[in-house]
Amino acid sequence: MNRFGKYGKFLVYLVLVVLINLAGITLFFRIDLTKHHVYSLSTESQNVVKTLKEPLTIKVFFTKNLPAPYNGIERYLHDMLDEYAEAGNRYFNYKFYDVSAKGGEATPESIANQKLAKDYGITPVQVRNIEQDQVKFQKAFMGMVFIHGDIVDKLPAITSTNGLEYKITSTIHKMNNKISTFLALKGKVQVKLYLSSSLNRVAGAMRMNNLSSVPEKLKKVVEGLNSKYYGKLEFVSLDPATDTNAAKEAKAHNLLTLKWPAFLNRQSGVKEEAGSGTAGILVQYKDKAQKIPLIVAEQIPLIGTQYRLEDVAKLGDTISGVVDSVVDINEKIGYLVDHGTAPLS
Questions:
Q1: Which residues make Cβ contacts (< 8 Å) with residue 5, sequence separation at least 6?
Q2: Are residues 12 and 82 in the same domain?
């Protein structure tokens, strides 16, 4: 009995020693992985994710079983987002969406998730796959979407892990900073449309038949953006042809002014008088302003200068970027060199 007790104690001690060693190996392996910050977050990233004051959701759309060098990115993302979740507060959430085909065929779930990805502006990219000395190409989803309050941002094509933490943290920081900035913003950010009514007389001859609909279309774009800017945007439509102050402002900001000689309008059969007109968009907050072209001049060989009207309905992202710039929400984040990103100056 005593002999059995001795063996029993020995076995218990042996099991404990094995478990302790296994734990030590696991811990060592983890430390070895993270000593060069492969998966562990920088202090800057931890601080940024801890400051969230509203729910932040990250949706990842990533095709599985990709060829090298893309095959490790999804695993890297899993580990990195785990670190963000561990460092962050209750407002940080993330989810991976299955967009991969099963056995070469798409499932209803993957089809629905692919549509969701495209709705967010994440489209598949083409990657090269070498099989049996043959080069093949496949399309793969490799993007992620950030949703913070009413603000949506994205990294549409993650083709490398280099600098990925910097990109993720910068996006989170920018979105968090945007919410705080615009909630506390005094006054409105004006999106001003300068469009001379005189241009309507020559719009047809310049192949810009949709010019007259620009004010209403741009107004709708600004209204759509206003939800994520907490109502801080104000649309203003100005006619430099009848408003002398608007004409002076347009000239001061060097907005495009077109001049034309007298000509016979072939569409209407009417002789048009010589004239001029101004077109452009100005985003302004207090004394800071940036312009956005509305009409673009293009040089075409053997033909000469042609003018193209921008698709106003697609100007949302451009306007959003300029709004962020004039309000100056993009505070820089410093990073250590060993995080795979060059330090910011």
A1: none
A2: no
Classify residue 38 as left (phi > 0), alpha (psi -120 to 50) or beta. alpha
Closest CA to 45 of 99, 87, 11: 87
pLDDT higher than 70, residue 3: no
What pLDDT score does 256 carry? Answer: 95
Show the domain range for 92.
43-184
Q: Do 193 and 322 have their domain in common?
A: yes
Say how far apart CA 61 and CA 66 lie, in whole Å. 13
Lowest mean pLDDT among 19-28, 45-54, 221-230: 19-28
Q: Is residue 87 assigned to a domain?
A: yes
How many domains, the chain?
A: 3
Q: Which residues contact 278 (CB under 8 A, 6 or more apart)?
A: 194, 195, 196, 240, 241, 247, 250, 255, 256, 257, 258
Which residues are bridge partners to 237 per DSSP? 193
pTM of this structure: 0.66
> Are residue 146 and residue 279 in the same domain, yes or no?
no
pLDDT score at 286: 93
User: Are residues 134 and 177 both part of a single domain?
Assistant: yes
Residues 208 and 114 in one domain: no
Domain contains 338: no
Residues 162 and 226 in one domain: no
Give the pLDDT confidence score for residue 339 in this predicted structure: 44
What type of residue sits at position 66? L
More confident residue, 82 or 202: 82
With cut-offs at 50, 70 and 90, classify the pLDDT of residue 292: very high
Do 235 and 316 share a domain, yes or no?
Answer: yes
- Among 137, 128, 154, CA closest to 61: 154
Confidence check: pLDDT of 56 > 90:
yes
Alpha carbon distances (Å) from 295 to 46, 176, 195, 207, 223: 45, 34, 10, 12, 22
Specify the CATH number for the domain of residue 178.
3.40.30.10
